């Protein structure tokens, strides 16, 4: 089992990822929640980030060996959309994925991207660096994350804001947690940084916090 990813449970489906850690090649198996039977499975590919995309639907990313894609898989386990991007994607209450790309190669640099239903990409602000905290999305659709020594926010209109910056080049992947009253907590190596921001509470969506929910599945009643 992927050592850093949870089982993803949505409606009556489970997405379970397995990766050969020696080479980074993985597969995701889609299971029926009641019977445990395998509904479908992805072809072996470089492993990437995953997320819940809606009831019984999942985003499966692939990065490495030239791959840099994200696919959307439906309840029957079939791929219904694919984008030429990969990153720490969140899914808002309308089912729209967006997030910071995890890309560190030329010719084009990474950006914050929105993935549209017609398989195209909408450009958000350009990003520096690579190592990125697991992001979180507030109720207004603003995404917050730590990257390249900066606390960054990107609103629902894809306008970017730099909330804090310091000279820090640690190659670590932390978490971003939304607290009461606009507080944002960031885990950074052996430190926890807490900021006051104008952000609202956590969004009510199928996957508003990536893995920043401490390896559980978000529950919105």
Any overview of this molecule?
With 221 residues, the protein is mainly β. Helices cover 0% and strands 45% of the residues. The chain contains no helices and 20 strands. Strands 1, 2, 3, 4 and 5 form a 5-stranded antiparallel beta sheet that branches. A 4-stranded antiparallel beta sheet has the order 6-7-8-9, with no helix packed on it. The chain has a 4-stranded antiparallel beta sheet with strand order 10-11-12-13, with no helix packed on it. The chain is globular and about 50 Å long. The chain starts with 7 loop residues before the first strand and ends in a 25-residue tail after the last strand. The mean pLDDT is 89.
Give a short summary of the structure.
This protein is mainly beta and 221 residues long.
How are helices and strands ordered from N to C? EEEEEEEEEEEEEEEEEEEE
End-to-end separation: 29 Å
How many strands, what sense, and barrel or not for the largest sheet? 5 strands, antiparallel
Question: Outline, from the CA principal axes?
Answer: globular
The whole-angstrom Rg is 17 Å
- Percentage of residues in strands: over 45%
Structural class: mainly beta
What is the strand tally?
20
What's the number of helices?
Answer: 0
Low-confidence stretches: none
Summed over residues and divided by their number, the pLDDT gives a mean of: 89
DSSP helix fraction: under 10%
Topology readout:
Blueprint: E1 8-10, E2 13-20, E3 25-32, E4 38-41, E5 45-46, E6 50-54, E7 57-64, E8 67-73, E9 79-83, E10 90-91, E11 97-100, E12 111-115, E13 121-126, E14 136-137, E15 143-147, E16 150-154, E17 160-165, E18 176-178, E19 183-188, E20 191-196
Antiparallel strand pairs: 1-2, 2-3, 3-4, 3-5, 6-7, 7-8, 8-9, 10-11, 11-12, 12-13, 14-15, 15-16, 16-17, 18-19, 19-20
């Amino acid at each position: 089992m992927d050592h850093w990813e949870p089982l993803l449970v949505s409606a009556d489906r489970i997405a379970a990822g397995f990766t050969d850690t020696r080479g980074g090649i993985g597969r995701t198996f889609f299971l029926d929640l009641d019977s445990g039977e395998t509904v479908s499975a992805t072809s072996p590919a470089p492993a990437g980030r995953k997320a819940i995309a809606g009831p019984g639907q999942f985003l499966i990313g692939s990065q490495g060996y030239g791959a840099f894609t994200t696919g959307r898989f439906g309840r029957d386990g079939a791929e219904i959309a694919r984008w030429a991007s990969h990153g720490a994607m969140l899914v808002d209450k309308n089912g729209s994925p967006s997030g910071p790309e995890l890309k560190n190669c030329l010719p084009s640099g990474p950006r914050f991207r929105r993935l549209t239903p017609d398989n195209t990409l909408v450009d958000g602000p350009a990003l520096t660096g690579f190592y990125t905290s697991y992001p979180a999305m507030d109720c207004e659709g603003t995404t917050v994350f730590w990257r390249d020594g900066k606390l960054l926010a990107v609103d629902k209109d894809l306008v970017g804001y730099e909330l804090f910056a310091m000279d820090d080049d640690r190659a670590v992947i932390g978490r971003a947690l939304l607290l009461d009253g606009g507080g944002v907590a960031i885990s950074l190596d052996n430190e926890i940084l807490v900021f006051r921001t104008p952000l609202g509470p956590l969004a009510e969506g199928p996957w508003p916090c990536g893995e920043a929910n401490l390896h559980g599945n978000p529950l919105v009643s």
